[in-house]
Amino acid sequence: MVELMVAMVAGLLLVAAASALFASILKANRTAMQMSRLNQELQSITDMMARDIQRAGYDASAAAHTLVSGATSPFYFDSTKHLLNKYSSSPDQFRCIALKYDERDENATPSPGQPEDNEVVVYSYHSATLGGSVWMAGLPASG
Fold it and tell me: How far apart (Å, rounded) are the C-alpha atoms in residues 41 and 37?
């Protein structure tokens, strides 16, 4: 009877150890999957930002704006007009990238060559206020 109880205790300890090992493996796998997903999402975000930054200032009908009238393109980004006045009072000033580019071709309707709301974008990073997040927001085209 004593041998049976000792064997049951030994078996119980073995099952407990196996369960603890299984739980730790599951936790490590979950952490690895979360890190992998975070890396993939961060790579996607930086790729999207890089593409948008490369397109910044693109205007399909730039010749009509600059060569004919001598005026600047409506997609030109002036930091004193578009960025500093809107964000200078913030403690997080200069932690953003604001850009405009023409997503439509020159024959698009309505009003080709004029920025729409979805063509003016701000990417921002906030370390303390939002817990270290990168966010994207659209600005009004007239802003």
Answer: 6
Q: What is the pLDDT of residues 38-87, one digit of tens each?
A: 999 989 988 988 888 787 777 766 666 666 666 667 777 666 655 544 44
Which strands sit side by side in the sheet containing 133-138, from one edge to the other? 96-100, 120-126, 133-138
Residue among 97, 84, 82, 93 at smallest CA distance from 129: 93
DSSP string of 78-108, one letter each residue: -HIIIIIHHHTTSTTTT-EEEEE---S-TT-
Structure tokens at 89: 């009072």
Domain ranges of the chain: 2-138
pTM, full prediction: 0.57
